[in-house]
Specification:
The chain is mainly alpha-helical. It is built from 3 helices and no strands. The chain has a domain of 33 residues.
Length: 72
């Protein structure tokens, strides 16, 4: 076998394996597109949750500023 024949056989095998990987990963994208990474969704907080967090933080600030907290 010549070197060119071996290299073309290896290249054909690589393409075949990339196609098999893409099918197993559930993607129709080309293998050269890079790794498949799922998009991260933004977490959304309700207005009530934001208000509860804000109120808790106000309480922490007030406790920190109080004269009894400084003596500790």
């Amino acid at each position: 076998m010549s070197l060119e024949t071996i290299l073309s056989t290896i290249d054909a095998e690589i393409v075949r394996l990339q196609q098999a990987r893409a099918l197993l990963a559930g993607s129709n994208a080309k293998p050269a597109d890079g790794p498949l990474v799922p998009k991260k969704r933004k977490r959304r907080m309700s207005a009530e949750a934001r208000e509860r967090i804000a109120e808790a933080q106000r309480k922490r600030w007030a406790a920190q500023k109080s004269p009894t907290a400084k003596s500790a």
